[in-house]
Amino acid sequence: MPMPYNFVMPSQLGSGVGRSDFASTQWSMVLAAKGDGASIAMADLCAAYWRPLYAYVRRCGRSVEDAQDLTQSFFSRVLEKDYLQHVDPALGKFRAFLLASLKNFLTNEWRRERASKRGGAAHIVSIDDMTRAEDHYAAGLAMSQTPERVYERNWALALLERTTARLAREFAAAGKSRVFDALKPYLTGDRDARYSQVAVELGMSEVTVRVSVHRMRGRFRDLLQLEVAQTLPGAGDSRDVEEELRYLLTAL
User: Fold this and answer.
1) Is 1 contained in some domain?
2) pLDDT, tens only, 90-134
């Protein structure tokens, strides 16, 4: 399939974000979950990474209902059983850590967890989010793909969506939501670009629209770098981000 956001290529990385910007990683949230901020940190983690984990469970052959229960139970188990007490960011990428933890959960504990939680568990992720996760899974399913590849593809898509949402919030904070909505389609490239039409809609010159699209793409690229960096161990540098992004693009 064509790669979405095809302007974001590994060769373009490294100039917009420096090492100091990578200090606060997703691992910080994991470590925070050891202390008083556990509930908030875990809620954020669930919202961010529900879909790829759910997709993995589904591709392993579980039904929709079982996959929902198991993914919910996995996050509950991580919090309740203090799985995070011995987490070390030096162990590797956050993406790999979560998948390894899920595999261990499915292998050793899913039957007991399902029996005790089914029907009575508090929903960490909303029913709407669970439904959307299944819709995404069904739409992108390739039966020849391994569960690991399905997981990685959904992880990459989640990163792109989180980056888009973050960019949308920046535009909204600047009072430019209308501009973002009009220019968002151009994040994917210049094919069938109709800048003159958008210029009329926004009351801008065509040149201004083109410049705005260029700047929006640059900002998206910077935010995507940061999103990827947040899933890497330690204070990763641009080379680490380039390698991870290159790998994730192959999963799309």
Assistant:
1) no
2) 667 888 888 888 898 888 765 665 555 554 445 555 555 555 556
pTM of the model: 0.72
Structure tokens at 57: 């469970």
| Residue 4 falls inside a structural domain | no
Distance (Å, whole) CA 244 – CA 238: 10
Identify whether 103 is part of a domain.
Answer: yes
> Within a 10 A sphere around the Cβ of 110, how many other Cβ atoms?
19
List, in order, residues 6 or more apart from 112 with CB less than 8 Å away: none
CA 110 to chain centroid: 25
Domain count within the chain: 1
Structural domain for 83, as ranges: 10-251
Cβ(180)–Cβ(171) under 8 Å?
Answer: yes
